[in-house]
Write a structure and sequence with these properties.
alpha+beta, Beta-lactamase, three-stranded mixed beta sheet, 18% strand, globular
């Protein structure tokens, strides 16, 4: 994207209500909850709103700019999932393939019954884990930060996903741990998409970063999206914040000047490892809104994308209904009316979700409160960037849902 972006207002949005949107975000900045924000709205082939506010680095007084680089964390997941589905289109992998076909050490995975690491009592899976289970978080895997079960405690003890291991080393550690549940019987947000990234490597024969550059970032012109920030771009990296321990304001969670993202990582996480700019990510969203194609570059087929954005949860249920005890946050009312596809959450019933929008819209967020969604019915793509770790407790903010009401409220 250009260094300075000027939206082309088409009258499809209320100027007054877009002011309400900026004012709402400004309140977060004035209150000291967010250091800075970047908001982009793309509608009917036009950039109708682009707004930067506040600072990308409060400690050094650096303003938020159009080319600020953000940690997008789990907004990596739709990109990695798209990469695997590109290989699906080539006939190199099927959704019902057992994962053990590509990871032989996973042939005898078992399900947790009781005990703690390393003394687990387990039982056999009802069926093998499939590729679709990974793409939909129905695999039985988990995250160590969940802090709800003895299995996620084992993840923490073994440093699963901690960054010191390669993808291969993480995969082999997981081979020795039980699943939270038998694949396909529940929803649990997890390292599943990291394994999707690993499958991309195994099936394509390329390192994940090389594959993404050749098949997604390069063709889309996503010049600032990668697993790390090289020295020439380091000054553009935003500082990441979290709620202050005092309960007032914010503390630094990851200083831009000393961030691990300034170094090429050993562990390239398909589930949460990328950095990007709002402009880059908007190009990815434009491609999705364009049914898999942007400016003549076809990234994914139209029918494949249709398949990816259907609800794939067992029985056609919602995320809230399918979430297991290992994922209590996903059983909250805010996840009613929402299903899960192959890399995206998918809107099923806007009344149940208590959110405006269109059935069939798809979305995801990142741990630092970044957010995007695509509404094909309204020909709408929205990207929101900030850097605030909002994972629960007193630190949690509800900005994703607030943005829905504000953006759709501005739509004429």
């Amino acid at each position: 994207m250009a260094a300075t972006l000027i939206p082309t207002h088409t009258g499809s949005f209320s100027a007054q209500h877009l002011d309400y949107l900026d004012e709402h975000l400004r309140k977060y900045i004035t209150a000291g909850t967010l250091a800075g924000t970047l908001m982009a709205i793309y509608h009917r082939d036009k950039l109708v709103h682009w707004s930067t506010q506040g600072q990308r680095d409060r400690e050094r007084g650096k303003p938020m700019t159009d080319d600020t680089i953000f940690r997008i964390y789990s907004m990596t997941k739709p990109i990695a999932s798209t990469a695997l589905m590109q290989l699906y289109e080539r006939g190199l992998v099927q959704l019902d393939d057992p994962v053990a076909k590509y990871i032989p050490s996973w042939a005898n995975l078992r399900v947790y019954q009781s005990g703690s690491y390393p003394n687990f009592l387990t039982t056999a899976c009802e069926r093998p884990m499939t590729v679709r289970d990974l793409l939909t978080h129905q695999s039985g895997l988990t995250y160590g930060f969940m802090n709800h079960t003895n299995v996620d405690a084992a993840y923490r003890q073994l440093g699963i996903g901690g960054g010191g291991d390669s993808l291969q080393q993480m995969v082999e550690k997981l081979a020795g741990l039980p699943l939270e549940f038998s694949p396909g019987t529940g929803f649990n947000y997890s390292h599943s998409t990291d394994i999707v990234g690993y499958l991309v490597e195994v099936i394509s024969g390329q390192p994940l970063d090389d594959y993404l550059q050749e098949h997604i970032f390069g063709p889309l012109g996503m010049t600032d999206t990668a697993f790390w920030v090289p020295p020439a771009k380091a000054d553009r990296l935003a500082t990441n914040y979290t709620g202050a321990k005092s309960g007032v304001g914010i503390d630094v969670a990851d200083d831009a000047a000393t961030s691990p993202y300034l170094h090429d990582p050993v562990y390239r996480s398909g589930g949460g490892g990328l950095v990007s700019t709002a402009g880059d990510y908007l190009r990815f969203c434009q491609m999705l809104l364009g049914k898999g194609t942007l400016e003549g570059e076809r990234i994914i087929g139209r029918k494949t994308l249709e398949l990816m954005t259907k609800n794939h949860l067992t029985g056609g249920t919602s995320v809230a209904a399918a979430a297991t005890k290992a994922s209590p946050m996903w059983r909250e009312p805010s996840h009613q009316g929402t299903g899960f596809g192959l890399g995206f959450a998918v809107a099923l019933d806007t009344a149940d979700a208590q959110l405006p929008g269109s059935p069939g819209s798809f979305t995801w967020s990142g741990a630092a409160a970044t957010h995007f969604w695509i509404d094909p019915t309204e020909e709408l793509a929205v990207v929101f960037m900030t850097q605030y770790m909002s994972l629960g407790g007193n630190n949690r903010i509800n900005i994703g849902r607030e943005l829905r009401s504000l953006v759709y409220g501005a739509l004429n």
